[in-house]
Amino acid sequence: MKKKVWIYAVLALSLILSACSQSSSGQPDEKKNSGKLEIFSWWTGAGEEDGLKALIKLFEEKNPDIPIENAAVAGGAGTNAKAVLASRMQGNDPPATFQVHGGSELNDGWVAAGKMEPLNDLYDKEGWNDKFPKQLIDMVSKDGKIYSVPVDIHRGNVLWYNKKIFADNNLQAPKTFDEFFKVADQLKKKGITPLALGDKEPWTATMIYENILLGTLGNEDYQKLWKGEMKFDDPKVKKAAETFKKMLSYINSDHSSRNWQDASQMVAKGDAAMNIMGDWAKGYFVNDLKLKVNEDFGWVPTPGTDNQFMIITDTFGLPKGVRNAKDVKQFLSVLGSVDGQDAFNPLKGSIPARTDADVSKYDEYGKQTIKEFKAAKLAASLAHGSAAPEGFVTKANQAVNIFVTQKNVNQLIDSFKQASSELKK
Amino acid sequence: MEPKILPSLQSGSSLAVSAKKRKRRNADQLMSIVFILPSILAIGVFVYGFIAWSGYVSLTNWNSLVPDLSFAGFKNYLFLFKDFRFQADLRNTLFFTVFFIIAVLVMGLMLAVFLDQKIRGEGLFRNIFFFPMALSFVVTGVIWQWLLNPATGVNLYLKKLGLDSLWYTSVKIIPGVEWGKIQFGVPVAVIAVVIAAAWQMTGFSVAMYLAGLRAIPEEIREAARMDGASELQIYRKIIFPIVAPITVSVIIIMAHISLKIFDLIYAMTGPGANFVTDVPGVYMFETTFRGNYYANGAAISIIMLVTVAVFIVPYLISSRKGES
């Protein structure tokens, strides 16, 4: 009997051991895999995925010996991808390079956590320091060290409108808040939903508020707000919240069951007249809905933000602890090159971050935006994590979600004030 | 079932036989320990170890990307119970759980009784009722979102009939009594999620009840009929009492599903306007992995664990008592 027990015990032990040895023999495989250059992003939609593929193709032509793995995670505005990335970074398993919005998301997030390598040497080598706008390089730098390479620029303060509805009703696209409300009243009288909103994911409503803030406060005070030099209970911030409240009385009633694409679709179909969204909406109009630029839909900067540019920039950096750092830099140098930016951006529907890109490759909207980008004052977007840390953005989205229903201005201001204690860290 | 076999093993008659048996039992015991050890170790580390770790993190200041494991006491818990969103989550979970369980029990029993009538095409109906169980909650969420969305699906018909088509996105709370930071009552929008969840899980309770009904010997019914009981009386007085223990099992299983629900809500409505359809699972995901409030997220998950334990632990204790 005893013998039998021992046989079983040895058997069990050998099972455990073999299981262990299997897992350890699994590791070299992983190491082999990490020879692949893993590009982590949330570019899975029409247009953006094509752009990414064009970029990868360009890289592979130049570096046929470095295989690339496209590790994109689906989900609007990177909501899911950011969660995956956070887990991987916490577990010290960073992708070779990943998409991150320039500004606070990069600087107060990964750089502050000590997870990024500076790229000043790459910038010097490629001569990029005067190829990207200085304000943009500042957005991806902390304490004089540059941490990522911007690939595209999106504009957040755009008001899209259905040209046919505006022409039929003899309306002009609004440039100020007064004009906006006048137009909206007229549309409402005719039974047309003036403003389409899809805030199933609340960041879309936060975008409206940040654009109103920029239009009400002006560029300087808007910057001060995020640096903690201006308080959230400032009368101007309150006035912006009042305007936001008024604007919300012109939205579609089923807004909370729609996402941003649904809202854009309402404008495209003529169910609503206007929509405030970043200019990835143009990519959606053109690529998915097959609309013609400046024929089926038109655009103006959101009220009061003429000559201002709410900037959302996708950038890629070099995480610490990556085995193939040299290859990553190789990829980043393609990403930051004129060829790379012109391969990617026309497909994605964004404009290049470099100021010396080939303008002829872009459509009418792109050409105009490239021109305006050079002259405009830049402002960092809150909803997309450029103005404030992710923690604040999450709280702000919650506060805005409650505000859209309750419309309590003082409560919104209080929530922002409470969350802003985090800004000073 | 198995423990019942043990007493017969233990009752040895003569001394020599019992000594031999004892030796064998010791060997059996040792062997079973050897075999069970790996899974005990694995569960100990990967389940209980990580629960303990979450509990510890929930008591720290780790609320950014940089781990900060300094002790914070119950700060994170206090924050949550004062938070509008979390109060709304508790309210939504309460009403979701109650309505969901009632719907699953009532519909499950009704359909099981219906199938028990030896109708034609029973197999077909059974498959129809069980089929939604094969789907994942994410699929269910997407389907029902299309069906109930005010811009598509059944609401277009409601609209044509002049009925309210906006209940899906309603922010109404009935009756909406002020309590803490929220209005307490039944959030109208939760009904949509209850419909979807009940649609999916009713098949499970149908299966449970049907098994229970089939286990009742035909003789009992016949005896009752002989005594002049009507069919209704047979169900009320005999069959329902017999299947009552199944109800407890269904409630326990459904409660732990509904208290932890995440995927259905996430795919279908999201947190909803004014957080009318938000649940702790969604809040935990967003605050941890988007807002990087790790300690806060850990606190939410510990609260979820406790609420589920409130249901499960008494059940486990009573079922253990039943066994011994």
Automatic annotation (TrEMBL), chain A:
Signal peptide: 1-26
Keywords: Signal, Transport
Domain of life: Bacteria
Location in the cell: Cell envelope
InterPro entries xrefs: Bact_solute-bd_prot1, SBP
Chief location bin: other
Gene3D superfamilies (UniProt xref): Periplasmic binding protein-like II (3.40.190.10)
SUPFAM superfamilies to which the protein is assigned, alphabetical: Periplasmic binding protein-like II (SSF53850)
Function: Part of a binding-protein-dependent transport system for a sugar.
Name this protein carries in UniProt: Probable sugar-binding periplasmic protein
From TrEMBL, chain B:
PROSITE patterns reported in the protein's UniProt record: ABC_TM1 (PS50928)
Domain of life: Bacteria
Matching SUPFAM superfamilies: MetI-like
Entry keywords, A to Z: Cell membrane, Membrane, Transmembrane, Transmembrane helix, Transport
Chain ranges passing through the membrane: 30-53, 94-115, 127-147, 188-217, 238-259, 293-317
Lipid bilayer topology: Multi-pass membrane protein
ABC transmembrane type-1 domain mapped to chain residues: 90-317
Location(s) in or outside the cell: Cell membrane
UniProt keyword Cell cycle present: no
Family designation: Belongs to the binding-protein-dependent transport system permease family.
Protein name: Sugar ABC transporter permease
